[in-house]
Design goal:
- The complex is a heterotrimer of chains A (about 140), B (about 150) and C (about 230).
- Chain A is mainly alpha-helical.
- Helices cover about 75% and strands about 0% of the residues of chain A.
- In chain A, helix 1 packs antiparallel against helix 2 and helix 2 packs parallel to helix 5.
- The longest helix of chain B is centred in the C-terminal third of the chain and has 32 residues.
- Classes of the chains: A mainly alpha (about 140), B mainly alpha (about 150), C mainly alpha (about 230).
- Chains in contact: A-B, A-C, B-C.
- The interface between B and C is large, with 93 and 100 residues.
Chain lengths: ~140, ~150, ~230
């Protein structure tokens, strides 16, 4: 599809905005509607659009398969890692109030932010994997 | 309660009149039943998966509508600098229902993804995704064996 | 009959029509596209019900990823189904029977939007710091006058509206020892205005962790089921 000028140009213009908007939605999950799931899916949509228009070899050049697989596990590891970190600091599993911050409210916010990043990474990479696996090249 | 519906009294009138206040739950049940019909009546596997998705969204609607308050607003705290503009802020809707449904939506799409992978494998194995054709192929290959 | 209710009924009617279309069209591509339309209508209905996070998630996940997934599956299979009889009567009978039992069960539920419902006067009263309907801060009982759609036989007192939520920080009046904050109210007295994210990440943190594990498992299952063939080819 990359010999169609309109698709190619619009993809190149749109993908940066989609990626930034996805990161914005993940980062502002606490301040308004949003969060890890929604932002992760929007991030993945940017990559999927790139993959649809430019083809799968190009998508694999930008996000190699091994990186995507590794990052999918890293998201869950980050989430569980925050829980283990709070246990190492003396609290219970996923008790965010013991994290190092100014006061207990800020510690809760820190814990929630880290956890949402983990969720966003996992959701984004799994959606890219789902698209990668389910789409097929070279069939009429 | 069932006998109260048959008795002609004020209590039974109130029970029937309560449908006017709970009519929306009846509509959500209709949506669920459309999806349920798709699961049990259709032979195509993708149609069955779509019917299951319809059933799920009907249940989510039912759940979220339980948390709605009359005159309520989205469960996001109003910031203090804007609160003086509102004469009567009004209550917040219940956020617990939203949380559980967020989890349920994402889990349901994960299940759909695995179902689609299985359907692709079934297509590669049997050449078809119609349930009756698969059953015929299986009966032809393994006659007399109870497969599906 | 206010405008919110009217929009709700119009959108629900459209959703029922589109749902019947999803089940009954013969072309699978048409059914998938109608499924995407159905997800967008669901997102609008939830936005109308003030469920903004759920609407966001349904619009992105349901109308976005779900449609991509289904269209990708259609690449491997036929685009339409066999001609089937118009109505499958035993299934229709079973569905009508189940539906009537379920509707009979919902007759006992509190009215839509009732502030006296148990869901608004239980735990959430403490979590959100608001008192709706039945009991206000002084402990007085105020029944709700349900005048929107049908009159019910309740005393006609004015309902008590909620107060703005208390914005105290968790460090003010709680025990200073670290790890002593098992009380869920601390989740709400932090710095996050979005109560849904605060509940999702802190109060129901275990659920979200295992939900992330479920998503990861779904990705692994896709790889295990479909990648082997690609390496052969």
């Amino acid at each position: 599809m990359k010999d169609q000028v309109v698709l190619r140009v619009m993809t190149k213009l749109l993908v940066p905005f989609m990626l930034v908007f996805g990161c914005y939605v993940i980062a502002h999950g606490e301040l308004g509607p949003g969060g890890g799931f929604q932002g992760g899916v929007i991030l993945a949509a940017g990559f999927i659009l790139y993959g649809i228009v430019y083809g799968k070899p190009e998508l694999h050049r930008v996000v190699p398969r091994r990186v995507v697989d590794a990052l999918a596990g890293m998201g869950v590891l980050l989430y569980a890692g925050v829980g283990v970190w709070t246990m190492l600091l003396g609290g219970r599993f996923l008790d965010y109030s013991v994290l190092p911050a100014v006061d207990y409210g800020a510690a809760e916010a820190l814990g929630m932010v880290l956890v949402e990043y983990g969720v966003g990474i996992t959701v984004c990479t799994v959606m890219i994997t789902v698209y990668d696996m389910i789409s097929e090249e070279g069939r009429s | 309660m069932s006998l109260a519906l048959l008795e002609p009294s004020a209590a039974s009138f109130l029970k029937v009149a309560s449908l006017a206040g709970t009519y929306n739950y009846a509509l959500y049940v209709v949506l669920m039943m459309i999806g349920f019909y798709g699961v049990i009546a259709k032979k195509n596997l993708i149609k069955q998966a779509l019917g299951l998705g319809l059933f799920s969204t009907g249940i989510f609607l039912f759940y979220i509508s339980m948390g709605v308050v009359e005159g309520g607003t989205a469960p996001v705290w109003r910031t203090t600098d804007a609160a003086h503009l509102l004469k009567d802020p009004g209550p917040y809707d219940n956020p617990l229902t939203h949380v559980l449904i967020l989890t349920a939506i994402v889990v349901s799409v994960s299940t759909l993804a695995v179902a689609m992978a299985l359907i692709v494998n079934i297509q590669r194995e049997y050449g078809t995704i119609e349930e009756d054709e698969i059953r015929a192929i299986e009966n032809a290959e393994h006659p007399g064996e109870d497969v599906l | 009959m206010n405008s919110v209710l009217l929009i709700d009924m119009v959108l629900l009617g459209l959703a029922v029509i589109v749902a019947i279309g999803v089940i009954s069209v013969r072309s699978l591509l048409g059914a998938v596209m109608l499924g995407g339309i159905y997800s967008l209508l669901m997102a609008l209905i939830w936005q109308n019900m003030n469920a903004v996070d759920v609407a966001f998630t349904e619009a992105s996940v349901g109308a976005g990823i779900s449609t991509v997934l289904l269209v990708g599956t259609l690449l491997h299979t036929r685009r339409d189904t066999n001609q089937s009889p118009a109505i499958h009567w035993p299934a229709l009978f079973a569905v009508v029977l189940t539906g009537s039992f379920l509707i009979y069960g919902t007759l006992d539920m509190p009215a839509y939007g009732d502030p006296n419902a148990p869901i608004h006067t239980g735990r959430v009263k403490e979590l959100l710091g608001q008192h709706v309907g039945k009991v206000d801060r002084e402990g007085n009982h105020h029944p709700w006058k349900y005048g929107s759609i049908a009159e019910q036989s309740v005393p006609t007192d004015e309902p008590v509206h909620s107060y703005p939520p208390p914005r105290t920080h968790a460090g003010d009046d709680h025990a200073a020892a670290a790890g002593a904050h098992g009380h869920p109210e601390d989740d709400f007295k932090g710095h996050s205005p979005n109560t849904v994210t605060s509940l999702l990440a802190a109060y129901r943190g275990y659920d979200t962790m295992f939900e992330t594990a479920v998503i990861f498992t779904a990705g692994m299952a896709m790889v295990l089921l479909l990648r082997r063939r690609e390496e052969d080819a």
